[in-house]
Amino acid sequence: MDNLFIQFGLIILVVLGVSVIMRFLKQPLIIGYIISGILVGPLFLDFIRGSETISLFSEMGIAFLLFIVGLHLSPKIFKEVGKISLVTGIGQILFTSVIGYFIGILLGFSVVTSIYIAVALTFSSTIIILKLLSDKDSLEKLYGKISIGFLLVQDLVAILALIVVSSLGSGAGAGDILISTILKGVVLIAVLIPISHYILPKFGDFFAKSQELLFVFAISWGLGLSLLFLYSGFSIEVGALIAGIMLSMSPYSFEISSKLKPLRDFFLISFFIILGSQMVFANINSLILPTIIFSILVIFGNSLIVIILMGLFGYSKKTGFMSGLTVAQIGEFSLIFIALGVKAGHLSQEILSFVTLISLITIFGCTYLIVYSDKIFAKISPLLTIFEKKKIKEKDIPKKDYDYILLGYNRIGFSVIRAFSKITKNFLVVDYNPQIVRTLKDEGIDAIYGDVDDSEFLEDVGICKASVVVSTVPEKETNQLILDVLRRNKVNPISILTSRQIPDALELYKSGADYVILPHFLGGEYISKVIQTAKKQRKYYEREKEKELKILKERLKKGHKHPEIERDRK
Question: What is 404-557's CATH superfamily?
Fold first, then answer.
């Protein structure tokens, strides 16, 4: 199959067919992509034989994913979760490598092979986890930020390990290469920081005048820095991530992110196809038992050590549990690390197939655990209490009862707070973003950090004692949980909830909600009432205009800013 167009077209058709089946079965599409890779790989259809194009697409998908993640990683985040991310990341690496080494020795592997396997088991798949967190809208949650932090710690250690193995294979001095690479990284970042702070904002305003120009600029910046870091001895992933972080403080970061997501999703399919196609195993029967043992270590052992460490540092059992699930697999760096060991002559091809199988098993398991994490946590929550301290740094339970409670700030919450303020001062705001909580407190507003997916927390925060409860969280499951807590405690405050879809809103009404906000329809409903009331009276529109201007200026001061994008004239 020499025609690349035909080859790629057939692969996409297979992906479509498998994805449709996954959708009917209500399974994550990532699983479908990996299965598609197995089907089009050497074991079955053998469509991707000798195709460098798909490998290129795969690398671009990884670059776009990490670039978009970087856009959401303000440098302030590292200040918030840097300590726990570093401790958890290093702790998990040490635990897994030590235990993995002794298990390898007990199973009859050589010392060198055991070291390679043990180190490979410590590296989680940043790409897959970031995709799953993004799909769950969890990148801004505390556990999402912590997870990103220790995944970055893993990636840094992985890069250093790859440098060491590469130098051993080439006969070069590992120490010299490490020092040289680190120095290059420090110099690059030192040069890029002032550029991103002083120069990029000026160019950003120029590029933002055109949607197409902003799109091209974002791609050029992301891929350009990826190449720069690649030629400096780092990986494409590191460069793409830093490129995104450099643009994270820009007012156009959300606009750039939304434009690149479809491109990211398209190219990422290639990554999962390549991963699935690596299922090529020979004489693997003797390694079935070791595969099961190491898979259990990765899925349960890695998760457990993260839960324990985060519990010791005072985080809640739910934050620890959710964070722990993100390390319950091994990924791309593990396979690259073992592949380099094979290339250096330290390992056999059989070991690469062995680790690949562990990777796929753990990715399958981890994907399901993360997708259904809320339901799993609800069932095992009592068992996790032993890992939770009595005094939790996340939980700042209010010392008084509030008449009005807002769950979730965001842009809708801004307007709700204005309404609360005109009625009473006795109201509380709950949000999962620590930065928002601090900002509200600085403004004199009672606010606490909290995860509204936790029924115990909802009771602790006092929603059962409030007169009005407003939730701006659009997930149907979360709002159903709020109604369940109210019903279980036999209280009936006014409940105002939020939904994205009409069927979900109807279900919430059926469950007892007093009012459901549908943000996408609010603007049309409001302007229709203005038109009916004002008719042809310009003075009425002038009054509405003055009120709107006042609100917009206040929002602008708080950073609720969207870039003004002019449409290109063809």
Answer: NAD(P)-binding Rossmann-like Domain (3.40.50.720)
Whether 112 shows a pLDDT value over 50: the answer reads yes
Q: Hey, what are 356's tokens?
A: 């690949």
Mean pLDDT throughout 84-99? 91
Residues across the chain = 570
Q: What is the pLDDT of residue 418?
A: 86
505 vs 499: CA distance, rounded Å: 6
- From the number of C-beta atoms within 10 Å of its C-beta (0-12, 13-18, 19+), residue 205 rates as middle
CATH class given for the domain over 51-387? mainly alpha
pTM: 0.69
Nearest-CA neighbor of 48 among 267, 264, 273?
A: 273
pLDDT exceeds 70 at position 300? yes
- H/E element holding 449? strand 447-449
Sheet strand arrangement including 447-449: 447-449, 427-431, 404-407, 468-471, 494-498, 515-517
**For position 395, what pLDDT does the model report?**
59
- What ranges in 107-199 are assigned the alpha helix state H? 111-120, 126-135, 142-170, 174-194
State the residue for tokens 């409670």: 405
Is 34 within 8 Å of 357 (Cβ atoms)?
Answer: no
